[in-house]
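Before the break, one more example. Copy the sequence into your notebook; we will annotate it together after we see the structure.
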Amino acid sequence: MTAAHVQSSSDQTHLAYVLRRAIQLGVFEAGVVLLFSLGSRWLEGPVELVFRVIVVLVGIAGVSLLPGIWTRARTIEGIAGSAGLGLAAAFAFLLIDVSLLQPIGTYTNRWLAIGGGSNWWYHPVWWMVGTFLPWMGAFALARQSAKDGTASPAGVFVVSLIFTIIIGSAAAVIGFPGASFGLGTFAVSYLPAIALTVLVSGRGGTRH
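Here is what the structure looks like once it is written out:
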């Protein structure tokens, strides 16, 4: 994800285009979940951890940044379009999940336990996260573009990872309930980290 120069003053938010991209993102999310779950089932020890870390990094980078790249988010139009794209992608993932991933036994018990063993808990959380990450990612790209004239997805992701490490480590050190120096803690820490990245990306730029 290299620097993307502004190609148009109009954000790409046509409904047909957004829906088509949402389906693509939903398929991407399903692929990430499938890889993560298969790695958890078949691998063990350090190899499993490294594999899961890579999959999570690819997953959060794609979900956070692809919508903003696709919509060329530069104004509130593109930012909102990215959030809508993320929500539609979460629904696309839901359909793949309930019709394919769960019936073929993708999840181990510990993986399904993340959702409390119930779709009524698991999927709404997915919808919220799947909307929040594209929203914040597009917001960061738009603010960065307003400041520098270009949007660098790679730069946004690196900054967000730095914040993730700081927040996750702080949570583990101070004993925040449920926090530890583990993948789960740092994955959750990415949520406030991407929000902080929006603030940093917008310093000196125009607010949208």
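Residues 119-148 form the longest helix (30 residues). The CA atoms of residues 3 and 155 lie 8 Å apart. Try to locate both features in your own notes.
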